[in-house]
Amino acid sequence: MHEMSIALAVVDQVENADRPTGATTVNSVRLQVGELAGVVPDALAFSFELACAGTVLEGAELITEPVPARARCGACADTWPVGMPPRLSCPGCGGATTELLSGRELQIIRVCWNDAPAPAPIAEER
Fold first, then answer.
1. C-alpha span between 90 and 98 (Å, rounded)
2. Whole-angstrom Cα distance, residue 66 to residue 74?
3. How far apart are CA 107 and CA 80, in angstroms?
4. Separation of alpha carbons 100 and 105, rounded Å
5. CA atoms within 13 A on the CB side of 25
6. Phi and psi (nearest 5°) for 31?
7. Which tens digit of pLDDT belongs to each residue from 23-80?
8. Are 44 and 8 contacting, i.e. CB atoms less than 8 angstroms apart?
9. How many Å apart are CA 117 and CA 121, to the nearest integer?
């Protein structure tokens, strides 16, 4: 299951990223996942939860944003949804010189950090 290696890579990237001042933990991570990326969202969510254990991401929510696969014909410039299984020949002219425009994405697009907890007030001595 390569979703675990993806989850571990996401955790590693976030842990090594610059943190906003005072941020101590992560609330959520948003990923773009292309239709053709070969990722099973449920398996990724399960793996992400396991990969986050004991890190600053423990308890963080994984939000996946699906990206549909689209292609463009080199001959007639028509664009179409590729779908699954992928249809890479042009539905308009039948051309086979296809450019894949989207659908292979697998990237972190947002990390929401929690702020550092406010210090407890110190009781004054009388």
1. 7
2. 25
3. 23
4. 11
5. 12
6. -120, 140
7. 889 999 999 999 999 999 999 999 999 999 999 999 999 999 999 999 999 999 999 9
8. no
9. 12
User: 49 — phi, psi (to 5°)?
Assistant: -60, -45
Of the candidates 43, 41, 42, 21, which has an alpha carbon nearest to the alpha carbon of residue 33?
41
Q: At what angle do helices 3-15 and 41-52 cross, to 10 degrees?
A: 50
* Helix ranges, the chain (H): 3-15, 41-52
Collapsed DSSP state (helix, strand, coil) of residue 102: strand
Tokens encoding 37 = 């990326």
How far apart are the C-alpha atoms of 27 and 6, rounded to whole Å? 19
- Only one residue has tokens 């407890």, namely 120
pTM across the whole model: 0.80
What would the two tokens of residue 85 be? Answer: 């299984």
> Tokens at residue 45, please?
């969510």
CA-CA distance, 115 to 70, in Å (whole number)? Answer: 39
